[in-house]
Specification:
By secondary structure, this protein is mainly beta. It has a 17-stranded antiparallel beta sheet. It is globular.
Length: 363
């Protein structure tokens, strides 16, 4: 613990030197307001296996929500930097005052020759299938050249400050991105060290997760293939889980056609918020409640999603997908189908109007 405190204090000292007189500041950000309509939507297979919903499943709901995010970057002449993103007013209309200001991430970086050391609250990405767009409080070392990017990190997920025992939840991991001959190899993973509970405690989440991903272009088809692994104790399963998929994107006249097929086995749980192109089968669309079909048993899934640029300002899309789940004990096997459509229109430079509609049916 003392070594970590000393390292953090050292980075803080360097960071305090980046005053407005020495640093160049960059400002950017994004904002959105959304309207929702949902019908027969509040399903829960844990409470009603037959109808695939609970007592409110036939209800409909409409609502608005919004948020504004500001990104600030400060770069010094010596190469040190600080980055942060501030979130303002993130909430649903009618829930009261939304003047909250929160910090999405905030960290500094200091170069030491070809290595850069970063510390603070940082984005943590492995791949969208395994783990993506998370937040981590820790320290990491980064190396990058023309074809190689390497990150080695240490994250503190839960720090126990109630006593003198080192009963913390920490992650140790690495992410390698290697390019070669127009293809890219991604190898990443982490070991989660849970000292808070014993191995026979149901809250114990200790173990390794990792993935190997390859993407590139063959003829005119952009291909991606990935296989990933999760230790059984990470998700409280009885077996070590694994999953994988193959995806291709190819032009068909004016249409760009995405096709995907994959599987999850033995309790592997994909990152529902970032792996797509589903709408309601998980939370990739960011408008669903995050129905992650991989949580309920072994699955086979497939998706087909064409997009068409109708004009300089208008882009149209469609999506059809399915997931067939061989459910674990306590659930019924089920197959879910969904179909959806999207539209994005550039109203003015810097502002878009987006729409999405989808329907899902299960057996």
């Amino acid at each position: 613990m003392k070594k970590v405190i000393v390292a953090a204090a050292g980075l803080m000292l360097v960071g305090t030197m980046a005053t407005s007189a020495m640093a160049e500041f960059k400002f950017s950000g994004d904002a959105r307001t959304r309207f929702y309509y949902q019908s027969d939507y509040d399903y829960d297979p844990t409470t009603d296996d037959v109808e695939f919903g609970n007592s409110t499943a036939s209800d409909s709901d409409t609502r608005f929500n919004s948020r504004v995010r500001f990104k600030i970057e400060a770069d010094t002449k010596g190469g040190a930097y600080a980055k942060t993103r501030i979130v303002v007013g993130n909430g649903t209309f009618g829930e009261g005052e939304k003047g909250d200001v929160t910090t999405d991430y905030a960290y500094i970086g200091v170069p030491f020759g070809p290595i850069t050391i970063e510390g603070g609250r940082m984005p943590r990405d492995i791949t969208p299938f395994l783990f993506f767009d998370g937040r981590a409080e820790g320290i990491q070392a980064k190396y990058r050249n023309n074809n190689t990017g390497l990150v080695v990190f240490y994250d503190t997920v839960d720090e126990d400050i109630t006593n003198t025992d080192d009963d913390d939840l920490n992650r140790y991991g690495a992410l390698l991105n290697q390019g070669f001959d127009g293809w890219n190899l991604t190898v990443g993973g982490f070991y989660q060290d849970d000292a808070r509970y014993s191995s026979n405690d149901p809250n114990y989440t200790d173990g390794f997760a990792g993935t190997v991903k390859v993407d590139g272009t063959l003829a005119n088809i952009a291909l991606t293939a990935e296989i990933a692994y999760q230790d059984k104790d990470l998700n409280g399963n009885s077996d070590d889980g694994y999953g994988g998929y193959i995806q291709g994107v190819m032009p068909v006249g004016p249409v760009s056609l995405l096709g995907m097929i994959g599987t999850t086995q033995d309790g592997f749980e994909m990152d529902a918020a970032d792996f797509g192109p589903f709408v309601m089968l998980n939370d990739y669309s960011q408008i669903s409640t995050g129905f992650n079909f991989a949580e309920y048993g072994d699955s086979v899934f497939a998706a087909l999603a064409p997009t068409y640029k109708a004009s300089e300002k208008l882009t149209l899309g469609a999506q059809v997908s399915m997931a067939d789940v061989d459910a674990d004990t306590g659930y019924d096997d089920f197959t879910a189908w969904e179909i959806g459509a999207t539209a994005s229109y550039a109203v003015v430079d810097g502002a878009k109007l987006n729409g999405i509609i989808a329907y899902m049916d299960t057996d």
